[in-house]
């Protein structure tokens, strides 16, 4: 159960960020790892509190056995800890880097939570380093063929489980590289792309086939015993503002995709922020990734507009533990902007009213209504829209003959993953834009339903 007095004696220490100035000159991993002694000490802080909210629905959609592997890590039994972790977590190297760690917010130690995410990352990276992570090839093949459309976290998690169950899995992906938003969305400094490629190579060695540069066609419904649509929900919310078309206005994911392509090719991005005044519209996580990316590209300045008021510093009474705290968080990009510009790039209760050549006009908001007389013109050579997502692409839905839900998703009316006959959906495409860990859990849940369906077909 960890060290009974560990949480009293040992201070919580996360993997530290690399120095802000140094990391602004590259797109390498944001964090520096800590040595094994530090990790074991951090694992010793897990209280095995008897009611581990960390692994409940509040804490972990995958229901990772957190107190168990923290205990094994504390005792220096890393290989067993990793086995325990991989019982429920398909790709700890992704969640160990990008998960917001709902489990830590649900920890009984609250603000002093055990560093589960860093511990998870340490276990999987040690596993790769020491050769404990090897292809797990299913001993028996069922002869049933499954197509998974989309290679984001939900598609990868479903493909992984279906392959493990002995089915022949083909992942069909329209992009030139696999990974979905893990590849083209989340920036390299948060999730190095070599980490995504390493996992895909492992899955290939395990027998999963990847067809890249391929648009899924409904003909696959006849070619495969089951088809699982995991196409994501990247349709961006547009802004309804006056725009004469003279400025450079882009959606955040297009910008971030171009930035990652440039990092991978070693060239200049096709949408670069270099020497430009950048305005990011949207104060959320995607907006923060745009801020961090623009600073690395050498922007002249960066401002992040947010319609909502600044969140409270502490939890409100209607948002108690172990819920995710809706409190003010200052993420890496914002910290870097503070370092570079001397102030928080976020401007609250403000939106764009008009887009002009080299400038934008902003206006203050009360609720969602503009306050007359508060207009202000600020420099802007590149405006990035990070105002959320409104569901999945209608083209794929139309081609496969699926009616979208009110939220623009492929959520079956009965709440399962089965749309009709041999057609299923999972991940953001089913739930709407969410988190990597939720997409992984949904992909695995869909895989179980597909498996049940295939068993019933025998
Ligand atoms: C910029 C950004 C940063 C984020 N950062 C984080 C983070 O730090 N932590 C976190 O937990 N979550 C983060 N998220 C959310 C997270 O990335 C998503 O919830 C998750 O990737 C959804 O996984 P998915 O598999 O459902 O879909 P996606 O990752 O969107 O993958 C869908 C894939 O399907 C393919 N596809 C679609 N239609 C077709 C078709 N017809 N034929 C063939 N292929 C098709 C697409 O090309 C894509 O590769 C972020 C999201 C964004 C936009």
The best one-word shape is: globular
Query: What is CATH's topology name of the largest domain?
Result: FAD/NAD(P)-binding domain
If strands are numbered along the chain, what order do they take across the biggest sheet? 3-2-1-4-16-15
Question: How many runs of DSSP E, i.e. beta strands?
Answer: 16
Give the tally of structural domains.
3
Helix run count: 17
Task: Offer a quick outline of the entry.
Helices cover 34% and strands 14% of the residues.
Descriptive report:
The strands form three sheets. The protein has a six-stranded mixed sheet. Strands 5, 10, 11, 12 and 13 form a five-stranded mixed sheet that branches. The chain has a five-stranded parallel sheet with strand order 6-14-7-8-9. β7 (277-281), α13 (285-296) and β8 form a beta-alpha-beta unit. It is globular and about 70 Å long. Helices cover 34% and strands 14% of the residues. With 458 residues, the chain is an alpha/beta fold. It starts with 5 loop residues before the first helix and ends with a helix. α3 crosses α8 and α6 (92-98) packs antiparallel against α8 (116-130). It folds into three domains: 6-130, Fumarate Reductase Iron-sulfur Protein, Chain B, domain 2, CATH 1.10.1060.10; 145-234 and 391-457, FAD/NAD(P)-binding domain (3-Layer(bba) Sandwich), CATH 3.50.50.60; 242-385, FAD/NAD(P)-binding domain, CATH 3.50.50. The structure holds flavin-adenine dinucleotide.
């Amino acid at each position: 159960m960890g060290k009974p007095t560990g949480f009293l004696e040992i201070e919580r220490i996360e993997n530290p960020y690399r120095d802000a100035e140094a990391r602004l000159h590259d797109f390498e991993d944001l964090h520096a790892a800590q040595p094994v002694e530090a990790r074991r000490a951090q694992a010793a802080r897990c209280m095995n509190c008897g009611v581990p909210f960390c692994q409940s629905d509040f804490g972990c959609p995958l229901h990772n056995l957190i107190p168990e592997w923290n205990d094994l890590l504390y005792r220096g039994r890393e290989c067993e800890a990793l086995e325990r972790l991989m019982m429920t977590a398909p790709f700890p190297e992704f969640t160990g880097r990008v998960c917001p760690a709902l489990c830590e917010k649900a920890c009984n130690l609250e603000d002093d939570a055990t560093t589960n995410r860093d511990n998870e990352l340490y276990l999987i990276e040690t596993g790769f380093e020491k050769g404990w992570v090897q292809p797990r090839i299913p001993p028996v093949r069922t002869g049933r063929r499954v197509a998974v459309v989309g290679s984001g976290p939900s598609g990868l998690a479903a493909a992984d489980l279906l392959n493990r169950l002995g089915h022949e899995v083909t992942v069909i992906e329209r992009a030139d590289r696999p990974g979905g938003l893990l590849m083209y969305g989340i920036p390299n400094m948060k999730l190095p792309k070599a980490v995504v490629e390493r996992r895909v190579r492992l899955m290939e060695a395990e027998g999963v086939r990847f067809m890249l540069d391929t648009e899924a066609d409904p003909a696959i419904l006849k070619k495969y015993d089951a088809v699982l649509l995991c196409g994501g929900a990247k349709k961006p919310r547009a802004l309804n503002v006056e725009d004469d078309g003279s400025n450079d206005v882009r959606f955040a994911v297009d910008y971030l995709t171009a930035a990652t392509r440039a990092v991978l090719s070693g060239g200049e991005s096709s949408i670069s922020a270099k020497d430009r005044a950048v305005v990011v519209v949207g104060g959320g996580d995607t907006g923060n990734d745009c801020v961090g990316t623009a600073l690395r590209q050498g922007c002249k300045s960066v401002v992040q507009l947010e319609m909502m008021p600044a969140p409270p510093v502490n939890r409100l009474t209607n948002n108690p533990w172990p819920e995710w705290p809706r409190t003010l968080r200052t993420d890496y990009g914002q910290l870097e902007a503070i370092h570079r510009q001397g102030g928080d790039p976020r401007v609250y209760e403000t939106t764009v009213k008009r887009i002009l050549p080299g400038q934008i006009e902003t206006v203050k908001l009360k609720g969602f209504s503009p306050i007359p007389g508060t207009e202000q013109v600020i420099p802007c050579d590149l405006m990035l829209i990070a105002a959320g997502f409104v569901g999945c692409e209608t083209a794929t839905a139309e081609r496969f003959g699926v009616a979208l839900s009110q939220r623009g998703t492929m959520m079956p009316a009965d709440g399962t993953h089965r749309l009709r006959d041999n057609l299923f959906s999972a991940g953001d495409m089913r739930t709407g834009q969410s988190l990597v860990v939720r997409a992984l859990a949904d992909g695995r849940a869909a895989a179980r339903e597909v498996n049940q369906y295939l068993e019933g077909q025998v």
